[in-house]
Write a structure and sequence with these properties.
Strand content: under 5%
Bound molecules: (2R)-2,3-dihydroxypropanoic acid
CATH class: Mainly Alpha
Order of helices and strands: HEHHEHHHHHHHHEHHEEEHHHEEH
Number of helices: 17
Structural class: mainly alpha
Radius of gyration: 20 Å
């Protein structure tokens, strides 16, 4: 069987750079924020020590203001665009200037809980999560201070790369309002490693680059960027991940006797959960985000509206989300497509406009199980392992055929397989 622990471990070992892992060589030769935090969950099956190191390395590069960057450029490489020369963030080790979904609190709690069986693992988990706790708390505080500066209860992303779902249909309208004239000419490198038909378009890249240059002109001052960005979007998935991480961090803090930190994070989670509820969209039976620059609702049937299952949403909403996923399972051979196959904008092979990703499968499965929706959760696990059997450890997969897409030998895909096989 190709969906074996041995094969998954081999992918992690190939991409291990000692104190961090790269998502895959060539296409992504540095450390990525949410890749690393989710990869730590798989690494824990090899070595608890190595798993903690993965997250600690990322947090060594936290900014003084609390932001944890999307990319840490540990070593030079010319196989990726945009590199440190474009970002110019002026950090001791170069980093990009934006952030990514806040899965660290979620990952740390999972490592912490799983370490409870063995005395030595538990002692290590206590020491190492205690040190991380304050750094993750500072990141959460950064989000609410800088990405919800007007106190609405939900945070905005300022760049599609922050969502992790770079070219989702969700951003199409907001991205159309980003100017692209005057950008410095550049050459993409992603299309050297992956089929251009599976990647974002050149027009999208122009807007991605314009935003980077705009923020660079503002000196990467996070107290200015939110109000100055033409792209500021409130995404339900991004917020739900932050909510879950605040709640999970609070649970670990509670276990370690860190009462103030626990209270603060629990309060953030509750306040955002209340605000998230207003994003429920009755006719599409999912959450929908909005463009904070214009106030417009984002009418799109993407996985971003289903991922809030990860947070403690009301049971009726969880059941509706399970129903939406089951309905896609009637249409498609594999679950869970990143965009509804029957909806406008769906593209079966293009990155986040349709293909299946194992990390979103894992996050959704986790949420469904928490909500007691075990049937659909089980189906997602089966689908995930079937995809590996059929096509190996790819970056993402075509929902009908299960064909491998994007980069190969992909770290977080392997980490999620380990999660699915070791519970
Ligand atoms: C990329 O460069 O494609 C990445 O998704 C950015 O995080």
């Amino acid at each position: 069987s190709s969906a074996s622990l041995e094969n998954a471990f081999a992918v992690l070992r190939e991409n291990d750079r000692g104190t961090y892992t790269v998502p895959t060589k060539g296409l992504y030769p540095f450390q990525w924020n949410w890749d690393s935090c989710l990869t730590a969950l798989g690494l824990a099956a090899i070595s608890q020590d190595r798993a903690w190191t993965e997250i600690e390395t990322l947090f060594e590069h936290q900014w003084p203001d609390g932001m944890v960057p999307q990319i840490v450029f540990h070593v030079p490489s010319d196989t990726y665009f945009p590199g440190p020369d474009i970002w110019q963030t002026n950090r001791p080790t170069p980093t990009s200037g934006i952030t990514q979904p806040a899965v660290a609190g979620f990952a740390v709690r999972r490592l912490f809980d799983r370490a409870q069986d063995r005395h030595t693992d538990r002692a290590m988990a206590e020491t190492r999560s205690r040190a991380l706790l304050h750094k993750i708390d500072a990141w959460h505080a950064w989000f609410y201070r800088n990405r919800d500066p007007h106190g609405e209860g939900l945070v905005a992303i300022l760049h599609p790369w922050e969502a992790g779902r770079d070219n989702s249909v969700d951003w199409d309208e907001a991205l159309a309002q980003v100017p692209t004239s005057g950008i410095t000419p550049y050459r993409r490198r992603d299309t050297d490693h992956a089929n251009p038909a599976h990647r974002p378009t050149d027009a999208q890249y122009d807007a991605f680059v314009w935003l980077v240059e705009h923020f660079r002109r503002l000196g990467w001052d996070n107290s200015l960027l939110h109000d100055a960005s033409p792209f500021r979007v409130v995404d339900p998935a991004f917020n739900a991940i932050l909510i879950r991480s605040c709640a999970d961090l609070a649970a670990v803090a509670e276990a370690l006797g860190e009462k103030t930190l626990a209270q603060r994070n629990r309060a953030w989670a509750q306040r955002s959960l209340d605000a998230l509820d207003a994003l429920w969209h009755v006719s599409s039976q999912r959450y929908q985000g909005f463009n904070r620059a214009t106030g417009e609702r984002i009418d799109s049937r993407s996985i971003g509206g289903l991922l809030p299952i990860l947070a403690a949403i009301p049971p009726a909403r969880a059941a509706a989300i399970a129903g939406q996923i089951a309905a896609m399972g009637e249409q498609m051979h594999f679950l869970v497509p990143s965009h509804d196959p029957g909806a406008p904008g769906y593209e079966a092979q293009r990155y986040w406009r349709g293909p299946i990703w194992l990390i979103t499968n894992f996050l959704i499965e986790n949420g469904l199980r928490q909500a007691g929706q075990t049937e659909v959760a089980d189906r997602i696990v089966r689908s995930s392992l079937d995809l590996i059997e059929k096509s190996g450890f790819a970056e993402y997969y075509e929902p009908q055929t299960g064909a491998a897409l994007g980069g190969g030998r992909f770290t977080w895909t392997a980490a999620m397989v380990i999660e699915f096989l070791t519970r």
